Amino acid sequence: MRESVAHVVSILLFVLPAFAQNGSIASGSIRGDVFTKGTNGEPAVLPGVRVVLHGPITKETESDAQGEFAIDNLPPGTYEIEANASGLSGGLAVEVTPGTSSTVPLEMNVTMVSNTVNVTATEAFVADESAQHNTISQSAVEKAPNQEEKIDSLLPLVPGVVRGPDGRINMKGAQATQAGWLVNSANVTDPATGGQAISLPIDVVSSVQVISNPYDPEYGRFTGAVSSVETRTSNFDKFHFSIQNLAPRARDRDGSIVGIGGFTPRTTITGPLIKDRLAFTQSLEYRFVRTPVESLPPLQRDTTLESFDSFSQFDLKISDRQTATLSVAVFPQKFDYLGLNTFNPQPSTTNLHQRGDQISAQHSYVAESGALLSSRFAYEEFDADTFPNSQAPYQMLVETTEGGFFNRQNRDTRRVEWQEVYHFSPKHFLGDHQLKVGFDFSHSSYDGRQQFLPVSIVGTAGSTLEQINFGSPTTFSIQQNEVAWFGGDQWTLGPRLTLDFGLRFDNDSVTNSTHTAPRASLTFALTRDRRTLLKAGAGLFYDRVPLNAPAFPKFPDRTIVIFDAAGNVTSSVPYSNAITGGLKNPRSETWNVEVDRQVLENLLVRVAYQQRNTVDDLIVGPETSPEASLLSLASRGRDFYREFQVTGRYQIHRQTLNASYVRSKATGDLNDFNQFFGNDPQAVIQPNSRGPLAFDAPNRFLAWAELNAPWKLMLMPVLDIHTGFPYSVVNERRDFVGPRNDERFPRFDEFDLQVLRSFGVPFHGKEHTVKLGFGVFNLFNHANYRDVQNDLDSFRFGQFVNSAVRTFRGKLVFGF
Fold it and tell me: Are 179 and 229 in contact (CB under 8 A)?
């Protein structure tokens, strides 16, 4: 860890002089952040907004990629700020006195918003973001090193969010299937598995927010954190066109070029169809990517992803008080050799082919009183098929796996969702109240087919120790209705105290139950200058039940056959699939407390603690009694997560340095249902046990920065160091030996860097933009192993293999 930190310090010492010589902030200046509220009420920054200042003098500027603007050298006096862009407008009045400098939030709405702000030399600005609400801005989306160039790959920039050993994102100690995944407030999970089920071109993303404990009652149907993506508003003023990644990457295998390693062209166009009235965005992306497992033979080490993502959006300004948005996303995908690793070669893996599309329509109306009615309708289709790469019998050996994968699935799912949210005009009674009520209805369906083929467990002597046989393929159809209604109040009692109350009711036709989920939080300024804020909250959350769960009794049953050393059958036990005790909606009880302190004008320090207890999770395991043997699915799983976080953010001259340390603990029941019956199921199901969850990383240090270096270079380094993930020890029969998840991989240590530079290129009398740069991943080539031989009967027991190697990526973007 010391070596990695030293490398980062050396790089920062190179770039820090570049902005140190810019000098101090001039007196009589105004700095601002331009933003608007998304359909879910969360802020989203607005780049490219024209900002005009009227007063003793008139000045004009434009917000940058981070939504920030700055106007310096202002004589004392009163100034009116006007901002207009993309059918939105905003404004406020600012009193500038000698020697003052302040950051002013400028909110854009469908109607003009006028406020008066008296700026004095003692006022300070503390960001509204907290440990519970972390936003990855559009600037970070564009500048961050992102090897996959997908929005999910940026989520680990948030403290407490890690990519687990299975490659899936785990947010704040929760399984990927326990999280909420939203795009423009629409639910984009797979109804069958509960996992994320949408893919968008990253160019259309305005921001993404990770909400650890969303106490707003509008949020529901999860027990973990929420990822909320907002797309960019189409440009109402002029056309913009970009194209990038036109050159394919070579497939380098041991110094020889063998075909194409990747080809990911992407293009986006946005502009007005009817000026200041109707605008559109169209983004297209084709992806062909081979990702190697370094420990396998050169031409047999790649997973292959081929996908096509299309996103269309139409933004309509009906009037000064009404807006509407229609979006259509199409995202077919083929993922071959899913689950490929050192011990599962290509023939023994499964292929996952998916087809998905989503249509979403939103409408907002602002009344003269200031009340807001938001309506949203969404329709989603998501189909998935899995099938093996070989027809040979599936055999699990000590050193490798042979034959074709044992499972084949066909899943066709649909979801229709309708939501209405009404925000009342501000009320005044013992303070100010922002009240809202709403309801949400969704109908989901799942038509599926499951087939399982025999599985043999082979020992070190080459003889079969155990065989798992399955019943005939089955088909089934499951329906689900979900209804929620909620209400909330943001009560401001004065300049130092704000309370939020919420109450949500959820009804689920699968569990045939209604749940009450109260929430409450507060923000209290511990000091009069509001430089020290106390934030705390607590609430209940109820999760959805994935439709794979009620379909489980209709899956093929299994029979476990045990052999002795001579190959004779010693026992044969049939297990039937059964739901024990009925299905329940998983429930989490969460609370948090944090203190934010603006230590210096540009330095914010945050200390936070949060805790989550989850019960009624879905777990599966064998149960044997004198009457029968069952493979039992039960709602009796428990998870526990706690996190202590220290974060610092330093901003100077539009440059940001972030650093955080997280001490956490994620434990729970380890027989999570989805790992055995998801996209890549496991054949052997041992009795359930408790221990550290697969993505538990007790210590994590994360640092990243947005820097302006010499020669107009934009740098974004990212350093991620955390404890290695846990794993279990097994023997040749695949029985666990000792406590589960009691061993750990070596420490993970990765330093990534992206460098960009923008050039102005004249073309047909106009100035166009070209961005040129490169990214390097695992710059110091640290051994971050992804596989371990955990079978103690292997001669390679305890050996770590398959480390990610240093990788370079070029970047060339044409903008018109």
Answer: no
Task: Check residue 73 and give its pLDDT.
Answer: 60
For the segment 232-242, what is each residue's pLDDT rounded down to a tens digit?
Answer: 999 998 899 99
pLDDT in tens, 489-507: 999 998 899 999 999 999 9
In this prediction the pTM is 0.84
Q: Can you spell out the DSSP letters for 71-128? A: E-SPPSEEEEEEEEETTEEEEEEEEE-TT-EEEEEEEEBSS----EEE--TT-----S
Distance CA 106, CA 34 (A): 5
> Per-residue pLDDT averaged across 436-459, rounded?
97
CA 741 to chain centre: 25
The yes-or-no verdict on residue 298 having pLDDT over 70 is yes
Q: Which residue has the tokens 């098929």?
A: 385
Q: Which of 174, 227, 204, 281 is nearest to 617 (CA)?
A: 174
With 70 as the cut, is the pLDDT of residue 390 above it? yes
Token pair 């009183």 is found at 369
Residue 656 scores a pLDDT above 60: yes
Q: Which two three-digit tokens encode residue 114?
A: 């006028």
pLDDT recorded at residue 275: 87
Q: Distance between CA atoms of 590 and 520, rounded to whole angstroms?
A: 11
180: nearest Cα among 201, 155, 210: 210
Tokens matching residue 784: 């971050």
Encoded tokens for 470:
């399955």
Q: What is the DSSP code string of 658-692? A: EEEEEEEEEEEES-BHHHHHSSS--S--PPP-EEE
DSSP characters over 27-75: SSEEEEEEEEE-TTS-EEE--S-EEEEESSS-EEEE--TTSEEEE-SPP
> Can you tell me the distance from the alpha carbon of 356 to that of 181, in angstroms, rounded to the nearest whole number?
15
16: left (phi over 0), alpha (psi -120 to 50) or beta: alpha
Contact 396, 458 (CB under 8 A): yes
Query: What is the Cβ-side half-sphere exposure of residue 171, based on CA atoms within 13 angstroms?
Result: 30
Using a CB cutoff of 8 Å and minimum separation of 24, what contacts does 401-406 make? Answer: 401/343, 401/344, 401/345, 401/348, 402/347, 402/348, 403/347, 403/348, 404/347, 404/348, 404/453, 405/348, 405/349, 405/350, 406/452, 406/453, 406/454, 406/455, 406/683
Residues whose CB falls within 8 Å of the CB of residue 258, separated by 6 or more in sequence, listed in order: 251, 252, 298, 299
State the burial class of residue 734 (Cβ atoms within 10 Å of its Cβ: 0-12, 13-18, 19+).
middle
Query: What pLDDT, in 10s, does the model give residues 267-291?
Result: 999 999 998 899 999 999 999 999 9
Chain-centroid distance of CA 257 in Å reads 34
As to burial, measured by CB atoms within 10 angstroms (0-12 exposed, 13-18 middle, 19+ buried), residue 710 is exposed
Which sign does the torsion angle of CA 18, 22, 23, 25 carry?
A: negative
And the tokens for 212? 């650890």
Interatomic CA distance for residues 475 and 138, integer angstroms: 44
With 0-12 / 13-18 / 19 or more C-beta atoms within 10 angstroms meaning exposed / middle / buried, residue 241 is middle
Q: Give the span between the Cα atoms of 306 and 308, in whole angstroms.
A: 7
Instruction: Give CA 443 to chain center in angstroms.
Output: 24
CB contact set of 41 (below 8 Å; sequence gap of 6+): 216, 218
Q: Mind spelling out the 3-state secondary structure of 138-180?
A: HHHHHHCCCCCCCHHHHHHHCCCEEECCCCCEEECCCCHHHCE
Q: How much of the chain is helix, strand and coil, in % rounded to 5?
A: 5, 60, 35
Residue linked to tokens 């970070």:
140
DSSP 805: P
State how far the Cα of 645 lies from the Cα of 665, in Å rounded to an integer: 12
User: What single-letter amino acid sits at 544?
Assistant: R
Residue 699 and residue 666 in contact, taking contact as beta carbons nearer than 8 Å:
no
**Cα torsion angle, 271, 272, 275, 279, sign:** negative
